[in-house]
Amino acid sequence: MKKRVVLYKRLSPALLAQLEQQVEVTWVDTSAADGLARLRDALPGAHGLLGASLRLDAGLLDLAPQLQVIASVSVGVDNYDIEALTRRGIMLTNTPDVLTETTADTGLALLLATARRVVELANWVRDGHWQASLGPAHFGNDVHGKRIGIVGMGRIGQAVARRAAAGFGMQVLYHSSRPKPEVEARYSARYCDLDTLLAEADYVCLTVPLSAATEKLIGARELALMKPEAILVNIARGRVVDEAALLVALQEKRIRGAGLDVFVQEPLPADSPLLRLENVVATPHIGSATHETREAMARCAVDNLLSALAGQRPANVVN
Ligand code: NAP
Question: In the chain, fewer beta carbons within 10 Å around the N or the C end?
Fold first, then answer.
């Protein structure tokens, strides 16, 4: 008999067909009004789950006594209680590597957009304000040749470092759980503690996972260490930054700006005070959101799920 899988993220027709050949699939649209009720109905028979951005609390897991594997279509696994899954004997898989380059691209896009005021000035042109040549009031800051501080020198951090060093001739500072001599050799990068990085960098890019250790890693004290001309780019998770403290730092122009892909509350409410600031570029968690990468992530998750259900060890086991 085929194993049963609850799918809560849409797959391309090709991937869905591949999955349906091997398992029985129940589709649940968790964004629909009755999504949670449907999920609750589907969980009792489920051997596997495949999706993303859903908090599977103990109440939901209790409904799934046969569950063997959750294949998350993400690299970040901060929305899972990993210890609880392990205790229950449920395997968690994720999709690292396939999204690294695209997420690093997003980081550079936010850095450039904020430093060169691309969004603000494009809107200014669209609103009909471009009637004379520009003066210093509309100038941005250089990116090339400046100093970037990368917090979290993992896969994405290294892909950002490569772009910054090779593409923009930037000096790379980094802070991570431990020094990485191979990275230092490759990108002429310098390891330092977080305070030094914040004090010396012109651009600070966050690429750490969200954990108890990194929640509010960047708060009022840390923002106060940054240069007044510095820009913060967050492509990690919203909760790595104390958003209230960031808002104050931006409003009072204690830092130059912020390029933010992730927020404490997502979707970011339309009345968020962050959106009233011209020195903020906010994107809707698009780190990995390209056609190619999202398909590669889904394929990776399907492969992980099918291996686990076949009793093999998937390529990307988290716990
Ligand atoms: P990764 O390879 O595990 O890199 C994370 C790095 O952070 C590692 O080098 C790790 O050190 C370091 N680190 C962990 N805890 C730390 C701490 N407390 N202080 C300093 N450094 C710490 O992960 P990745 O693939 O680069 O992804 C990183 C994160 O990016 C994900 O967890 C996810 O939340 C986020 N992300 C966001 C998007 C988006 O759409 N915006 C897309 C993809 C990923 P070690 O090397 O010593 O372990």
Answer: N
